[in-house]
Amino acid sequence: MPFDDKAFLREEILQLKEQRRAIILSHNYQRDEVQEIADFVGDSLELSRTASTIDCDIILFAGVTFMAESAAILSPDKIVLTTEMDALCPMADMIRVNLPRPERKEFPGFENPPSFIFPRDFSLWDIKKKYPGTPVVAYVNTTADVKAESDICCTSANVVKVVDSLPDERVICIPDKNLSLWAAKNTRKEVIAWDGFCHVHERANISDVEKARAEHSKALFMAHPECRLEVLEIADHVTSTSGMLRFAKASAEKEFIVGTEIGLLYRLRKENPGKIFYPLREDMVCPEMKKTTLKSLLRALRENTYLITLPDEIRIPAKKALDKMLEIR
Ligand code: 13P
Ligand code: SF4
After folding, report:
1. Which of 25, 123, 191, 283 is most buried when burial is the number of CB atoms within 10 A of its CB?
2. Is the minimum distance from the CB of 67 to ligand 2 under 6 angstroms?
C-alpha cells in the first residue's frame, strides 16, 4: 500500500499512538485530516491546560513550535514532540530577549504591512529597562526564553482577565499590538504595547467586513483579537478560536462571517451542521499551521522527531509565567 494513502497513514498513526501511549494535541487551525485524528483539538489556552494535566507518555503537538514548547514547559516528565521543527509563528519571532529582531519577512499576499514603532535594535530587555518594575504579560505566541523573562503569560481567550489580575496600574504586553490594544480598550489599566502582529489577521480590514456584510446581510461577524483594532470595533463578537465555536453554537442566528484563520471553519461546520460559515477573507491562511500533515504525524511517532527539550534555566521561569496564567479561571 502506498505510503501516502490516507487510510493507511491513519491506521499506522492510530496503532503507534496506542503502542506508545501518545496523545495528539491539535490547534484549531490545523488541516482537517490532522484535526480528525487528534485526541484533542482546541485553542491555545485549552491546549495548554490539556498539556499540563493529560495522562500519557508522549505528547505529539500539531501546531507551531511555541505551542509544543509550552507543552514541554508544562509537562517536563513527558516526551514532547513537534511535528515540524520549522513551523514557526512569525509573530513569536518579532520580539527577542536581548537581540535585535530579525529582518522583517515578506508575507505573500499581504500588502501594506504596518511599520514597527520600536527601533529594530530594541529588545525585551530594552523595554523592561525603559519601564522598570512594570510587569510583562507575554502572549503565548512567544519563544520559551521570552516567556522566561516575563511575569505572566496570556492567550487570546484570557488577555483581559490576565491584565486585570495584576495589582499594577501599568503593564507591558508583548508581542501582538492588536491583542494589546484590545486589552487596553477593555481594561482601566495603561497597556504598553509592542508592535508585533500576525500577518494572517493583520491583512483583514474594514472594507473586507463591509463587503462580507453586504454579501451576507444576516450573518454575525466574529473576529479574533489578533485582527486590527478598527476591525474588532465593528465586530459582533471578539473572541479566541474556541470562543467562536462556543458563540456560534449558542447563538440563535444561522449565519456567521469568520474573522480568523480558515482552519477553524472545519470544526465550525462539523459542529454546527444547520449553520453557514463564511470566511472573512479566503487568504487568511497560516502557512506554518498547514505544514503538519498525516505523514509528519506518522514520522514523528516512528522516529521520535522532533523532540522538544529546554534547559532548566529557561523552563523553570517560563513555567512560572505559564502556571500563573493557568491559575486564573
Ligand atoms: P487561539 O485562538 O488559539 O488563542 O489562537 C490564535 C493563534 O493565532 C494561534 O497561533
Ligand atoms: Fe502565528 Fe498568526 Fe500563524 Fe497563529 S495564525 S501561528 S499568530 S502567524
Report:
1. 25
2. no
Residue 83: C-alpha distances to residues 2, 63, 68, 200 (Å): 21, 8, 9, 21
Q: Which three cell numbers stand for residue 273?
A: 451542521
Ligand 1 atom closest to the CA of 44, numbered from 1? 3
Q: Which residue has the higher pLDDT, 195 or 14?
A: 14
Looking up cell 453586504, which residue turns up?
214
Q: What confidence score (pLDDT) does residue 111 get?
A: 54
Q: What is the pLDDT of residues 44-61, one digit of tens each?
A: 999 999 999 999 999 999
Strand partners, 196: 176
Q: Which ligand is nearest to the CA of 87?
A: 2
3-state secondary structure of 305: coil
Judged by phi (left if over 0) then psi (alpha if -120 to 50, else beta), residue 109 lies in: left
Q: Whose CA is nearest to atom 3 of ligand 2?
A: 286
Is the distance from the beta carbon of residue 288 to the nearest atom of ligand 2 less than 6 Å?
A: yes
**Is 240 touching ligand 1 by the criterion CB < 6 Å?**
yes
Q: What is the arithmetic mean of pLDDT over 306-322?
A: 97
* Cell numbers representing residue 185 in the block: 480598550
* Per-residue model confidence (pLDDT) at position 99: 82
Probe residue for ligand 1, chosen from 26, 44, 268, 285 as the CB with the greatest number of ligand atoms within 8 Å: 44
- Residue recorded with cell 521543527: 85
